[in-house]
Design goal:
By secondary structure, the chain is an alpha/beta fold. The protein is built from six helices and nine strands; from the N terminus they run βαβαβαβαβββββαα. Strand 4, helix 4 and strand 5 form a beta-alpha-beta unit.
Length: 167
């Protein structure tokens, strides 16, 4: 069985709650890895990845991802599957809603990684997003600030798709 890693900051309470839900629904065993202390070697040992990438401020990656990515920027991700999810605020930052997902997608694809788990943009109200491709996001967009009641169903549907991709 291919190894799955879930990378997120263990300091983020909201993200930890989402990871717990995701991990419970996954049909494969996944190892949680704290991105705050992960090394490039820790990252490269997996075949399937779930990356928690919230969007900070005006469409930026969190500092822990900014600090980590240089350790794997020269690696090839060919043959590896990446599912990305992250939080954003579509009312407070409508012009760069969940840009973090899009920034991470670009980084992964530039290294030949396979990004899976695209989701519909239907039901969201925003002006722009680096994570948008046509009528889809390149990952799971969560808005705990404005649409918390929709998060569980969105997570359930997303993980059902991942269970088909992560074999």
């Amino acid at each position: 069985m291919k190894k799955t890693g879930i990378f997120y900051s263990f300091r983020s309470v909201k993200t930890a709650q989402q990871v717990k839900k995701i991990n419970k629904l996954l049909k494969t065993e996944a190892e949680a890895v704290d991105i705050d202390i992960a090394t490039g070697e820790d990252f490269m040992k997996f075949t399937n990845y779930i990356l928690a990438v919230p969007t900070w401020f005006d469409g930026e990656l969190p500092s822990y991802w900014d600090e980590f990515l240089p350790s794997v920027e020269d690696e090839s991700f060919k043959g590896k599957n990446f599912a990305i999810f992250g939080g954003g605020d579509q009312k407070g930052y409508p012009e760069n809603f969940v840009d973090g997902i899009g920034l991470m997608t670009k980084f992964i694809e530039e290294r030949e990684g396979n990004v899976v788990g695209f989701t519909s943009t239907e039901g969201y109200e925003f002006e722009g997003s680096a994570a948008q491709r046509g009528d889809q996001f390149t990952g799971l967009a969560l808005d705990i600030e404005n649409q918390a009641a929709l998060s569980n169903e969105r997570i359930e549907n997303w993980v059902a798709d991942l269970n088909k991709e992560f074999k």
